[in-house]
């Protein structure tokens, strides 16, 4: 490792027991959704997600590094950048074996961080949402949820509402799929499906395989809410009956598209109409 990093952490004790409170907490947060909800925290694994948090000024509560990970160039660069945040007292170095007992990843850069999950309460809003919104109606796969969040962030949709049956937006798996896009979004979770629309004052569009109302015929040049539904059952009846159903053309006759792909097509058609139309 570089002399600067080596000297700085040469006196740090190396944790060799998996009973260490920080190690135990990280493992519980990585593997137990109930623990994440109770603590209001999650774990970021890898340099990229920690950098995404720092760029959003969302400072880790704890940073855990394997002893061998200290010598990795990306870790050294990240640790050097932490000088501006005065986080030295939040850094724990653990033995390689303890780290491997915590992590859910295979080979990779051995650094992780425990962070608080941002709290956004839809019920306390003083006025309904009137800007673009993405509603995840019981989307259950972490990869799909993360991909949809990353796409929303890319096109500039900031408000996300997740009904109770959706995968956790801040779970480690969803964080990896979203590549840290969560830190640039306002995410409301755990909302009852029959309550969602009462918090909105804008047109609602929901993807459906039972309509001829093609997306390219819609006027999306105003704020809208896009609804993406359960991977098998689609959008629930309570929401669908108040939404405009929209179809994505599939001339070769496939039954349906993956929900993350469908969501990306809808959001990018919205962007195209507003910024790239002829």
TrEMBL record:
Residues 134-268 form the tRNA/rRNA methyltransferase SpoU type domain. Its EC number is 2.1.1.185. It holds the Pfam family MRM3-like_sub_bind. It is an enzyme of class 2 (transferase). Transmembrane segments: none annotated. The keyword Phosphoprotein does not apply. The keyword Nucleus does not apply. GO terms for biological process: methylation; RNA processing. InterPro entries: Alpha/beta_knot_MTases (IPR029028), MRM3-like_sub_bind (IPR053888), Ribosomal_eL30-like_sf (IPR029064), rRNA_Methyltransferase (IPR051259), SpoU_MeTrfase (IPR001537), tRNA_m1G_MTases_N (IPR029026). Residues 20-113 form the MRM3-like substrate binding domain. Keywords: Methyltransferase, Transferase. GO terms for molecular function: RNA binding; RNA methyltransferase activity. PANTHER family: RRNA METHYLTRANSFERASE 3, RRNA METHYLTRANSFERASE 3, MITOCHONDRIAL. Belongs to the class IV-like SAM-binding methyltransferase superfamily. RNA methyltransferase TrmH family. This is 23S rRNA (Guanosine-2'-O-)-methyltransferase RlmB. It comes from Psychrobacter pasteurii. The gene is rlmB_1.
């Amino acid at each position: 490792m570089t002399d600067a990093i080596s000297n700085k952490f040469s006196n740090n004790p190396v944790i060799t027991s998996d009973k260490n409170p920080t190690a135990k907490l990280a493992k519980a947060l990585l593997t137990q959704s109930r623990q994440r909800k109770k603590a209001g925290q999650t774990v970021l694994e890898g340099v990229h997600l920690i950098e995404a948090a720092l760029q959003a000024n969302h400072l880790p509560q704890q940073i855990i590094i394997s002893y061998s990970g200290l010598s990795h160039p990306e870790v050294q660069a990240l640790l050097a950048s932490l000088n501006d945040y005065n986080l030295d007292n939040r850094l724990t170095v653990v033995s390689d074996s303890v780290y491997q007992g915590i992590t859910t990843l295979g080979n990779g850069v051995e650094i992780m961080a425990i962070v608080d999950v941002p709290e956004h309460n839809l019920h306390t809003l003083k006025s309904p949402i009137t800007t673009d919104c993405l509603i995840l109606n019981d989307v259950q796969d972490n990869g799909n949820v993360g991909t949809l969040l990353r796409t929303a962030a890319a096109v500039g949709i900031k408000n996300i509402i997740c009904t109770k049956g959706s995968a956790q937006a801040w779970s480690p798996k969803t964080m990896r799929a979203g590549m840290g896009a969560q830190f640039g979004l306002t995410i409301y979770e755990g909302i009852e499906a029959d309550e969602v629309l009462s918090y909105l004052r804008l047109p609602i569009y929901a993807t459906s395989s039972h309509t001829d109302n093609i997306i390219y015929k819609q006027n999306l040049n105003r704020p809208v809410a896009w609804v993406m539904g359960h991977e098998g059952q689609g959008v629930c009846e309570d929401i669908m009956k108040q939404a405009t159903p929209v179809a994505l053309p599939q001339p070769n006759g496939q039954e349906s598209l993956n929900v993350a792909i469908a969501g990306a097509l809808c959001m990018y058609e919205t962007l195209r109409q507003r910024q790239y139309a002829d």
